[in-house]
Amino acid sequence: MKNETLSGSSLPRQNVFLKIISLSWLKKSLLVEIISMLFVILFLYTGISKLLEFDVFQEQLAESPLLEPVAPIVAWGLPITEFILCLLLFFPRYRLQGLYATFTLMVLFTGYIILLLTSDKELPCSCGGIVEALSWKGHLIFNSTLILLSFSAIRMQKRMNHVSDRHS
Fold this sequence. Notes:
Blueprint (H helix, E strand, L loop, with lengths): L1 H21 L5 H25 L1 H10 L7 H20 L4 H24 L17 H32 L1
Helix pairs in contact: 2-3, 2-4, 2-6, 3-4, 4-5, 5-6
């Protein structure tokens, strides 16, 4: 009788632990909200950092053989794009479009990093803020994680939209 009680009481504890670890206790809507706000914070931080040190940011872009011809356009376009993404991600009505754009931007950033890693040149990072302190391989890991997060958020948001459309 005692063994049944002990094994019976440990099973619910294991289930609770698994739920906590797997994040299954979080609603998809909350997870999408958290991921979206993470990107809002990231894009606000890096966008503001780029504008605060705009001359340095533009110089670093101009040092890149890939971006040199378009450095002035990218120097203004990138922070503006990051701020627009913040707005899209902040407002639930536009969140899915913001997540798609975030995913695309992160894939482009990651592709650029891969190109830099395959080149012989050691180029400075023009990311802005403390993200700048990462090594290029660190950037690759960081960006890959963000790509996975944005992809996951897109899938969850699409499922929620699909369920919501069926109930309408």
